[in-house]
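Design a sequence for this backbone.
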């Protein structure tokens, strides 16, 4: 998909991502994940469903500046000092709207994905 897919706001994009395959290629090989759970966040500059839980609920800051980039950017942040989270930026630049990828199922490169995990859980746990 190209960046135009992410031009609508997060409320419209999030359900369309369900079942989509996210694939990352690296020197070690590819890992493919089917997206199984998403969450939409609407912040500064959005119309309608403003979300006080959004990173950008009040203003643009160095920590949330990625939310204001061009649609289609992906960024990873460390959440609650425990885990990494992936957000996909939606809406035109300057508008804070994003989709959190909450869960996925590894469908390609399972061995590589397991080797990269910080938590040493069996691959059947948490694959939502």
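Sequence:
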């Amino acid at each position: 998909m190209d960046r135009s897919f992410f031009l609508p706001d997060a409320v419209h994009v999030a359900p369309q991502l369900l079942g989509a395959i996210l694939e990352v290629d690296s020197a070690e090989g590819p890992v493919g994940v089917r997206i199984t759970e998403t969450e939409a966040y609407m912040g500064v500059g959005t119309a309608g469903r403003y979300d006080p839980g959004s990173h950008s609920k009040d203003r643009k800051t160095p920590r949330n500046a990625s939310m204001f980039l061009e649609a289609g950017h992906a960024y990873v942040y460390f959440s609650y000092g425990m885990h990494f989270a992936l957000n996909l930026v939606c809406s035109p630049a300057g508008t804070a709207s994003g989709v959190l990828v909450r869960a996925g199922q590894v469908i390609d490169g399972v061995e590589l994905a397991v080797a990269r995990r910080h938590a040493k859980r069996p691959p059947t746990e948490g694959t939502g």
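Helices lie at 10-17, 110-116.
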